[in-house]
Amino acid sequence: AQGVERGDDGALRVAGADVREIAEAHGTPAYVMDETDFRSRARAFAAAFAPADVFYAGKSFLCTTVARWLVEEGLGIDVSTGGELAVALAAGVPGEKLLLHGNNKSVAELRRAVAAGVGRIVVDSFEEIDRLAEVAREAGVQQAVLVRVTLGVEAHTHEFIATAHEDQKFGFSVSAGDAEEAVRRVLAAPALELRGLHSHIGSQIFDTSGFEIAARRLLSLHAKIQRDNGIVLPEADLGGGFGIAYTTADDPSTPQELAKGLREIVERECEQLDIAVPHLAVEPGRAIVGPTTFTLYEVGTVKQVALDAGARRQYVAVDGGMSDNIRTALYDASYSATLASRSSSAPPALSRIVGKHCESGDVVVKDEFLPADVQAGDLLAVPGTGAYCRSMASNYNAVPRPPVLAVRDGQVQVLLRRETDDDLLRLDPGAGPQGAA
Ligand code: LLP
């Protein structure tokens, strides 16, 4: 997080608060967010992409307070389930600021979205077009939709591939003609209003040429649809996926660079296609919330584990793990860590930061040099955990999920409280009265 510095005695401070005091008051593990950093990243995206709309991807992290901040900073929110929709609505976010995603939205979810006046629903299958048309007709409204298309561009960290077909569940294939068929069906449904096309090519992307190819393919389809159907599509949504620096090896673009690059491509392409430039939208999640947050853990045990070559690796076990950050185990993601509660002049020791769960894959940080004197009671901070950590957290091993704390001007606000054993037992009708002790 931006507002992180070391105090005179070597302990980390975030936005004016000492991590030791945060840990004392709120316990560990905890996700600690810098509110000012969050707001300025959100604002930077809104400003850089304007007049394009920025819909924050709620799947990266969402709670009511963050939803309100986003609206205050001029963003909309992309929700991808009825649950995310419920959070946004509970925050008082106006329906028109919301966009609904999902490859398998239920009829109940569609009904809630239509009733809430959700501004855009991104349709993802033929069944869904029929279902949504029926839901909108019943509600007596004309629902604005985008058609999600699969452009044959798939991007992953540090690379992208452009292929003729894509073997994945999202969207309508362009090459197979499904996208144009979806457009015809939407146009034939009086209760649906086609606003444009949508594409999302992947996540944690650094190579902007993937976005460029996607934008060009999207616009040429956009132009063809306009021509063939004699209509104007007013919008185009290019999705999210902008990468962030998890380690010093990553070198992300700024919102300004991303926006400028995209705008240039779109304008050039539209000129060549001789079409009006559509109103654009993007859906960044990680790039806004990821860097604003670190996870604060307390060290419990330190083990010098013998490696094959006679060397040893320091295993530093913390009081959380794969239940609060599954990304290392799931994606082989790289994180860093730093000793947060003090400074140390001990030599660096190659360390692996592991959790408290009952499996050996429970690794938070694969490799990091921590001071050789790291010990029980020390606090560690793992930065870059704002996106897809709390939102993908689980109760594995019946571990309650950590709180999300926002700090501003030295003051800590609880965005989500820590779960308790009672929260878990409440779901279990077999738990006796002692369960609620
Ligand atoms: N729009 C759509 C349609 C998406 O599917 C996603 C992410 C986004 C926007 C936001 O992408 P972002 O800007 O946050 O990269 N759990 C994975 C990431 C999966 C993202 C899925 N969709 C992770 O932890 O890296």
From TrEMBL:
- Provide one Gene Ontology biological process annotation: lysine biosynthetic process via diaminopimelate
Q: What is its EC number?
A: 4.1.1.20
- Report the PROSITE patterns cross-referenced here: ODR_DC_2_1
Q: Which reaction does it catalyse?
A: meso-2,6-diaminopimelate + H(+) = L-lysine + CO2
Q: Which InterPro entries does the record cross-reference, listed alphabetically?
A: Ala_racemase/Decarboxylase_C (IPR009006), DAP_deCOOHase_LysA (IPR002986), De-COase2_C (IPR022643), De-COase2_N (IPR022644), De-COase2_pyr-phos_BS (IPR022653), Orn/DAP/Arg_de-COase (IPR000183), PLP-binding_barrel (IPR029066)
Identify the residues that bind pyridoxal 5'-phosphate. Answer: G241, E283, P284, G285, R286, Y388
Q: Where is the active site?
A: C358 (proton donor)
- Pathway annotation from the record: Amino-acid biosynthesis; L-lysine biosynthesis via DAP pathway; L-lysine from DL-2,6-diaminopimelate: step 1/1
Record keyword RNA-binding present: no
Q: Which residues form the Orn/DAP/Arg decarboxylase 2 C-terminal domain?
A: 294-386
Q: Which UniProt keywords apply?
A: Amino-acid biosynthesis, Decarboxylase, Lyase, Lysine biosynthesis, Pyridoxal phosphate
Q: Which NCBIfam families match?
A: lysA
Question: Would you tell me the protein name for this molecule?
Answer: Diaminopimelate decarboxylase
**From what organism does this protein derive?**
Motilibacter rhizosphaerae
Lineage of the species this protein comes from = Bacteria, Bacillati, Actinomycetota, Actinomycetes, Motilibacterales
Encoded by which gene?
lysA
